[in-house]
Each structure stands twice: as C-alpha cells, then as structure tokens.
Amino acid sequence: MRPLTEAETKVLFEKLANYTSDLKPLIAPLSDAADADRYVFRLIKDRVYYVLLSIANLATSIARENLASVGICLGKFTKTMKFRLHITALPILAAHARYKIWIKPNGVMPFLYGSHISKAHVGRWTEDCPANVGVIVYDMADNPLGFGVSARSTAEARRLDPTGIVVFRQADCGEYLRDEDTLFAG
Length: 186
Description:
Layout: E1 2-3, H1 6-17, H2 24-27, E2 39-44, E3 47-52, H3 53-59, E4 72-77, E5 83-85, H4 90-95, E6 100-103, H5 105-112, E7 117-118, E8 122-125, E9 134-139, E10 144-150, H6 154-158, E11 165-172, H7 175-178
C-alpha cells in the first residue's frame, strides 16, 4: 500500500472531476482541529482506495500479500494508466454529484441489468447538463443506482425520440451480482 504518485493523482482527479462538482470535500480534514483525521487515496496493487489516514497508517503493519482491501475502492488503473471507476465508488460520487438523472420505475430493472438509459425511462434530469459528462443515476426515490456518461445534452434529449439513448451506462448496482467473482479480486 502506497500513496499515489503525482501522475496517478492527476488522472484520478480528472476522472472524479467529471462526476463531482467540487473535489475539496473529498480531501479536506474532517474537522478544524490541528490533529484532525482526513481521507487519503492509497494504491494497493492497481486499485485505488479512499480511506481515513489513521486507518491507512494502521494498515501499514499488515503484510502486503495479506492486505486484501482497506477503505472504499474507487476504481483501478489499467495497464495504460487510465483510471476506471468501480461501482463501489458510487456513495462517494453520489454525495458530491454535479449532474443527476432520475429514471422511472419501468427503467430501473433494464438499467440494473446493464442497459443504457433511453429517453422513455427518464423521469427528471439536472438542467443544463452538457453532452459527454458524468451523471449519477437515481431512481425516483432518490436512491443512487449507478453512473454513466451523458450521450446528449438536456436540450438535445428533449427533441429525441423515446428509444434514443440519453446516458451510456458505466456502472450499476447490478454489478455486485454479475461481477461478484472479479469485482474484488486482485
């Protein structure tokens, strides 16, 4: 387990900035005290974890081959040093989301089975959402279901036919069941 390098941090923050409105709450101390605990990013093998600094310091006493995970897994670096977000990052992204989309009850199951979101399944959408930015997908009861990339802006989506895709799925809660063998494997 080690801290991220400058290049890795830059790639991670660029990916997170695509989904969140502000990165400061992610790295700020939890209180104003001088010895306040804060969250840090740590790399184990190729996966990035978001963990309290005090827990990360305690985890250094565990042998590297025995440490499976610590904190919240945000995603992993590919061999070409691109960062891929995992569904396990959803609570972090949902808490700081910039653009959101709410889908109707008839669109929840197709989304959880891995389909993209069509216009017919959209209940609400954040105003002025541009194309090709990260959006967090919610059901109508404000439960986060996953995240993806907007295929079109909100203005273009209004003129779209009902079968047109408005959000490309990147991750959904159904991955916990579909990919349970490989999701947490090293």
